[in-house]
Design a protein that fits this description.
225 residues; NADH Oxidase; five-stranded antiparallel β-sheet; 9 helices; globular
């Protein structure tokens, strides 16, 4: 039960402190392992995780992350990037797995018919983030997932190739335990508010015409002489 208990412990840390003699820098290896083992559609894993530990690089990233303190205070800044070169990723996948032609065609058709390929890749990337957060909770490693940043700015600072789109950031470090460093209480709505169980046989909803509430058009009566 330690994993579920630690999920209740986990929170988005607002401030980190530097490692010291009594507080060692966290080991992020389990987080990266969990992220790379996360579920992914067809196993394509269309993402890359950029790990930033250099203090100068983090300082350069701060302005494009709206100067949120976690960016410079953390020991490791993980930039989760979605890949937008899905055809290339499929070629890499086929070369690594030996997927037969029928499988290649099926996955290729799926990619070709995606209305928003980058959005799809970001969804896969968030699965990796979720598993990294779960691993951090299990090890009681302080983290803060962050969406508040300028993706183009992050790409420019890190000189990322155009095939990588920053999707979400995970700051990892040693939590600042001072009361003033935690301005917000950890809150979760009860499970009864978030979960609904369907226990009866589902029936198809009747099809509703989009013209149902439209004002009917009145036909003009032709005048006869």
């Amino acid at each position: 039960m330690s994993f579920l208990s630690n999920l209740s412990w986990r929170r988005a840390v607002k401030h980190f402190v530097p490692p010291s003699g009594t507080t060692l820098a966290p080991d992020i290896a389990p987080l990266l392992t969990a992220a790379c083992e996360a579920p992914s559609s067809f196993g394509l894993q269309p993402f890359k995780i950029i790990v930033v530990t250099n203090a100068e690089a983090k300082a350069n990233l701060a302005p494009v992350c709206y100067n949120q303190p976690q960016v410079t205070e953390c020991t490791h800044l993980l930039i989760f990037c979605a890949r937008n070169d899905l055809e290339v990723r499929l070629e890499e996948y086929v070369a690594a797995t030996g997927t037969p032609e029928a499988g290649q065609t099926m996955i290729g058709n799926m990619i070709a018919h995606l209305s928003h390929p980058v959005h799809w890749a970001k969804h896969q990337t968030y699965l990796a983030l979720g598993f990294a957060l779960a691993a951090a909770a299990e090890r009681k490693i302080a983290t803060c997932p962050m969406e508040g940043f300028d993706p183009a700015g992050v790409s420019a600072v890190l000189d990322l190739p155009h095939t990588l789109v920053p999707a979400v950031i995970l700051a990892v470090g040693c939590e600042d335990m001072r009361p003033e460093a935690t301005p917000y209480v950890r809150f979760r709505f009860p499970q009864s508010d978030l979960v609904q169980t369907v226990s009866t046989t589902a029936t198809a909803a009747p099809t509703r015409s989009r013209y149902r509430n439209a004002t009917p058009v009145r036909r003009r009566k032709d005048k006869t002489s």
